[in-house]
Specification:
This protein has 362 residues and is an all-alpha fold. It has 2 domains: 150 residues, no CATH class; 195 residues, no CATH class. It is 72% helix and 0% strand. The protein is built from 17 helices and no strands. Helix 4 runs antiparallel to helix 5, helix 9 packs across helix 11 and helix 14 packs antiparallel against helix 16. The chain starts with a helix and ends in a 6-residue tail after the last helix.
Length: 362
């Protein structure tokens, strides 16, 4: 059994490296070319930044295409387009000259339109100071809509996807709101929406809403011609809040110093003490692993979960913030595979650093 799982992991990594990532690179290059045609310089700058500095979001999301090789090109196109919308709009809200919640919600209507091929399109820049993107955002939306039409079971997951995207949009609106009101907005939002997840802190719920992994998992499920509604429900409840929450909490965990320096909201910082932070993060790791094992294609979903601690905790920000002990605790909770992914990610990071390090003059 252990050998079979190891072989499956190796095959999955091979498929990701040889098939999925090249497709992802081509899609990113295609959208990067489109950015050159954006007339407004500020929108062009933010669109370019969303691809150059956040391309790993698309690369990470595209691993779900490896689960359905026959549908991989469509899934990669869809995931790259939706994640690019997400990253682009996040940049626009981060760098906005205002904190206008109605503007942010109108911009993020693009996310909802992208995953609902049956509804109308909207003017996403109607309330934004910069408007002329040469059709870039609308083209991304139309790309997503074309792709979901190619997924045979998309009608089975559509409402679940829309619900998750709606929560994601709420988070983006409230977390980018006026600085003095953000925390209260998020707490009130959890009071309204967090009923089924009352055993979470409000910031853990917010973190789960900030991940697109559940949406991508449902896309992969919809690529099956005979996806059952009960299997779609199992995918959603495994990923939200546990796997999604783990994803974003780890992201915030390693960004604490950076966010503190920039005065940015950091969801992990709300834990009342270090001990509670560790206890809750370990719980997320364990719950995510347990839920992944109960899904169809459990080996794939377990790989996603076990890879998250390895990916995030191998970052150089961890030793810089002296989080060694916490990192080892979380890796241990993730099991032997998490340690393996940690080593693999460390080696890849070192190779990347070596390639970019300047060569001294001879």
């Amino acid at each position: 059994m252990v050998l079979r799982r190891a072989v499956a992991r190796v095959e999955l990594l091979r498929r990701i490296a040889r098939e999925v990532l090249p497709l992802t690179a081509r899609e990113l290059a295609r959208w990067e070319q489109r950015i050159h045609c954006i007339p407004n310089p500020e929108l062009r700058r933010q669109a370019r930044a969303s691809i150059t500095s956040k391309r790993f979001h698309c690369e990470g999301g595209s691993v779900f295409a490896a689960l359905r090789p026959d549908c991989a090109p469509t899934l990669v196109r869809l995931i790259v387009a939706l994640q690019t919308i997400s990253d682009y709009l996040d940049n626009l809200c981060d760098r906005s000259v205002s904190c206008d919640e109605t503007d942010f919600r109108r911009l993020h209507q693009a996310m909802l339109d992208a995953v609902d091929e049956t509804g109308p399109l909207h003017d996403y820049y109607a309330l934004h100071p910069n408007r002329d993107d040469g059709g870039y955002l609308a083209a991304l939306v139309q790309e997503c809509r074309a792709c979901v039409r190619e997924l045979p079971s998309y009608p089975v997951v559509r409402e679940r996807v829309k619900g998750l995207v709606g929560l994601y949009n709420d988070l983006q609106v409230y977390k980018h709101g006026p600085l003095k009101r953000r925390e209260k907005l998020l707490e009130d939002w959890f009071s309204r929406q967090g009923g089924p997840w009352r055993d979470l802190y409000w910031w853990e719920f917010a973190a789960a809403c900030g991940s697109t992994l559940a949406v991508f998992a449902l896309f992969a499920g919809a690529a099956l011609p005979d996806l059952r509604p009960e299997d779609a429900a199992r995918i959603e409840t495994a990923y939200f809040p546990w796997i999604c929450g783990l994803h974003i909490l780890l992201d915030y965990l390693i960004d604490q110093a950076e966010d503190a320096a920039g005065g940015d909201l950091n969801l992990v910082s709300y834990y009342p003490c270090a001990g509670e932070q560790e206890r809750r993060l370990v719980r997320f790791v364990r719950e995510a692993r347990a839920r992944a094992r109960e899904l169809p294609d459990p080996a794939f979903h377990a790989t996603v979960v076990e890879g998250l601690p390895g990916l995030y905790l191998s970052d150089g920000k961890v030793p810089a913030q002296r989080m060694h002990r916490l990192a080892w605790t979380l890796l241990a909770a993730g099991g032997p595979a998490s340690f393996g992914y940690y080593v693999w990610c460390r080696l890849r990071r070192r190779r990347g650093e070596a390639r970019t390090r300047p060569v001294p003059p001879s």
